[in-house]
Amino acid sequence: MKIISLFAGEPRLLETATEEKLRTAIHKSSANSLRITKQGIQGDDVANTKHHGGPDRVVCLYSLEHYASWEAEYGHPMQTPGAGENVLTEGMTEDKVRIGDMFRMGTALLQVTQGRVPCRTLAVYNNMPDLHLRFKETGWTGYFMRILEEGTVTGQSAVELVSTDPAACTVAEANHILFHQKEDAAAARRLFQSPGLAQVWSELLSARLR
């Protein structure tokens, strides 16, 4: 597991290849380090507060491994960062990381809370039609993390898995349950019981179970 790149950025009006204008923070700039607090990353913010931001969704991670697959499928490079991620990693794909996993990155301690819910901005920004739907189909969504201990992460920081629960859902499993198993009460219950799950997903699953 390692950090490849770090990114931060504020929301702004973005003109796309289709001349559509979007107010979004997906277009972030490279950063040498990130100062991370429990409420957010300094110099970083979100535009869509329904699916991003808040104490359960401070840091967004995405995997370098997925870039080549998307670029091969669509025939041209993704933007960087293509998923609006703060941390681009290697060796931390959704099938290897569990809800509730705790990672030490630099001086910060972070906990995985939920998969990233993909929106149409991904497709428009990358000029890759229906990319947000392909994110859901594959489960290659990236994921969010809350901050248990504030600190600073640099591009040279090591990544250490501090705690994991083998019974918890992987992010890939969590995505599949949320997006594709809407009538499966047993699956919903298993995800609901995953320690560390984001409050918004807990509420959604609770309503589904009712």
TrEMBL record:
Pfam families found in the cross-reference section: MOSC, YiiM_3-alpha
MOSC domain span: 28-162
Source superkingdom: Bacteria
Name the record gives this protein: MOSC domain-containing protein
